[in-house]
Write a structure and sequence with these properties.
There is one protein chain. The protein is 50% helix and 3% strand. It is mainly α. Strands 1-2 form a two-stranded antiparallel ribbon. α3 crosses α4 (63-75) and α7 packs antiparallel against α10. It is globular. The protein starts with 10 loop residues before the first helix and ends in a 23-residue tail after the last helix. Mean pLDDT is 74; it is low at 4-9, 226-277 and 281-307.
Length: 307
């Protein structure tokens, strides 16, 4: 990994984070954009940032502004500069291992923004996957999606968060919408400290693997057959046989929590209720409920809590 050049297996995710800065303080925005790429793992430890002559136009800033932003990140220990023929700016940031107090602190820092942030991530990542299921993918794109899934399934605890991010950003980029890809990257960045505070445990990975596979299967199944009507038709309710049963729902904490109600676009779940539709089910639209996809987990349609 040491000395690797940015872009090896991460081209689509690179496009999602290295996009032109918005109107405002160009310096601060450039620092934020570079930090996003580093903390999300799009540019991993030991990899090199693109050269200034390429990165400055990508971000829409001057090379002077870019150098100032890199200097700040260097002072904070995120990158280092190396001279010579194979020199450049290399990432030195290492994702911290979660400590017992990290999750509580991350939740406290998010405060009232937590539910808003989770809803935002739910909307953009689910929307990206659902949109991709209505898009015709060529063989190379389908192979890339499968490769991202295979790489994620083979990842160990140290690499899991980074490859999970690349998996979801790839789905967003394959839609062809730059705005949607940028929104997904932004949503990931907003929860990255929270996710890093959660230990990557075997049961969590196994549960998420089932859902990730169902997402990919639903996307590929959707791209193999034409759909009748406009894109929103995929929000139709699943058939009654696929409706969640009480056996599917996790045990509620405490008494008197609201129960699932049927109505509107499929089975929905209140924040503490039962019977929510999973991320994969929502992507699948009118497909049968994917086997093994139960409520809960990192990619559930509402809440995405890891269990």
């Amino acid at each position: 990994m040491e000395g690797a050049v940015l872009g090896e297996g991460a081209d689509l995710a690179v496009a999602a984070v290295f996009r032109p800065v918005r109107v405002g303080n160009a310096f601060e925005e450039t620092v934020e954009r570079l930090l996003q790429a580093i903390k999300l793992g799009v540019v991993d430890r030991g990899e090199r940032l693109p050269p200034e002559r390429e990165l400055a136009p990508r971000l829409g800033v001057s090379r002077v502004t870019l150098r100032e932003a890199i200097r700040v990140l260097q002072q904070e220990g995120y990158v280092e500069s190396r001279r010579g023929r194979f020199g450049g700016t290399f990432v030195t940031y290492r994702r911290p291992r979660p400590r017992r107090t990290d999750l509580r602190r991350a939740l406290a820092e998010m405060g009232d923004r937590l539910n808003d942030t989770l809803a935002f991530r739910m909307a953009v990542e689910t929307g990206a996957a659902q949109l991709l299921a209505t898009t015709g993918l060529d063989g190379e794109q389908r192979a890339l999606l499968r490769a991202r899934l295979d790489g994620l399934n083979a990842a160990g605890p140290d690499e899991y968060r980074r490859l999970d991010t690349l998996f979801h950003l790839t789905i967003a980029e394959l839609t062809g919408s730059r705005l949607l890809a940028a929104a997904c990257a932004d949503a990931r960045m907003r929860v990255t400290d929270l996710l890093n505070a959660i230990p990557v445990l075997g049961p969590n990975i196994e549960h998420a693997a089932v859902q990730h596979a169902a997402i990919v299967d639903a996307i590929l199944a959707g791209t193999r057959r034409p759909r009748a009507g406009p894109w929103p038709s995929t929000w139709r309710a699943p058939p009654p046989s696929s409706a969640p049963s009480s056996a599917d729902a996790p045990a509620r904490r405490g008494a008197g929590g609201p129960r699932a109600k049927r109505g509107g676009p499929g089975w929905i779940r209140t924040r503490s209720g039962t019977g929510r539709m999973t991320y994969a089910e929502l992507v699948a639209g009118d497909h049968p409920r994917p086997a093994g996809c139960t409520t809960g987990g990192a990619d559930a349609w509402a809440g995405w809590r890891e269990c």
